[in-house]
Amino acid sequence: MTEQLEATRAALVENAEFALTARDLAVIAGIIRQEAGISLSGAKANLVYSRLAKRVRKLELNSFAEYCAMVESDDGKQERGEMIAALTTNVTRFFREPHHFEHLRERVLPGLVAQARAGGRVRLWSAACSSGQEPYSIALTLLSVMPDAPRHDVKILATDIDPNVLATGEAGIYDAAALEPVPVALRKAWFSPLNDGTGCLRANDELRQLVSFRKLNLIGSWPMRGKFQAIFCRNVVIYFDANTQEAVWSRMTPLLEDNGALYIGHSERVSGPAEALLANDGITTYRKRRSGDKK
Ligand SMILES: C[S@@+](CC[C@H](N)C(=O)[O-])C[C@H]1O[C@@H](n2cnc3c(N)ncnc32)[C@H](O)[C@@H]1O
């Protein structure tokens, strides 16, 4: 065996139940890049191990090499989905980065509320919504200024690649700790205790009906045709490489209405050709320039 081959077969995680080699890591990184756009560097061996060892165990396999053979095979589609779900980071919380919701309430919603009450269509998008805290925070912000929103043509589209988090969002059930950032008045108005001994609360029907959860891969095809007045795309492109980030912004910006708002994560920035179409409007907040507006 050559030295190079030996190196790719050496276990990367010491004293582990299952051997994970550089070759296995390269296979896993290749699949997650191709299918989800997520860029994993070699330094992520411990993360990959801790997130996927339970899959190897559940499938009663003996090593990551066997797991890779499974996800690489033609029959491995379902497990590739499980792998992506296990490797995505779903951290989120209600009213995360609160300045975005203040901007939405103060600078964007007044015009949209008037538009909706006059019979207009209002569409907001939470792209990479995780388990629903972000789209429900958008909905709660809307309800705080427009409690009658459910009776108008107002919808929040909530999308993610991971069906598990979408199911949690759709159920709309959260424990009291998760709901702590939600102002008490909004919590009381729009959530009800489950009274099943778990201490959990459920989003009321009217709140849940404002949000439509759908599976959507940001590097796949996007079926929607209509435009949005605001898009939240936060804390997801950070996992993509620079070219993929640029491509997402280039596809997303045409889906924003003129003067529509784009909110991105605290450590992200819009890059590439989309930059010229957007104007800064606060911390990690952009507005789409109206055609004809000067830069
Ligand atoms: C860290 S969470 C961010 C959740 C929320 N936007 C926030 O800021 O709190 C990242 C989410 O992006 C999703 N994700 C990762 N890659 C994706 C892709 N290619 N397409 C759609 N969603 C993706 C993950 O499943 C995860 O739920």
Could you describe the 3D structure shown?
By secondary structure, this protein is α/β, with parallel strands linked by helices. The protein has two domains: about 5-85, Chemotaxis Receptor Methyltransferase Cher, domain 1, CATH 1.10.155; about 100-290, Rossmann fold (3-Layer(aba) Sandwich), CATH 3.40.50. The protein is built from twelve helices and ten strands. The chain has helices spanning about 5-10, 20-35, 45-60, 65-70, 75-85, 100-115, 135-145, 165-170, 175-180, 185-190, 205-210, 240-250, and strands at about 120-125, 155-160, 175, 190-195, 200-205, 210-215, 230-235, 255-265, 280, 285-290. The chain has a seven-stranded mixed β-sheet with strand order 6-2-1-7-8-10-9. Strands 3-5-4 form a three-stranded antiparallel β-sheet. β4 (about 190-195) and β5 form a beta hairpin. The longest helix is centred in the middle third of the chain and has 20 residues, at about 100-115. The protein is globular, with a radius of gyration of 21 Å. Bound molecules: S-adenosylmethionine. S-adenosylmethionine (SAM) binds near residues 130, 162 and 234. S-adenosylmethionine binds near residues 96, 165 and 239.
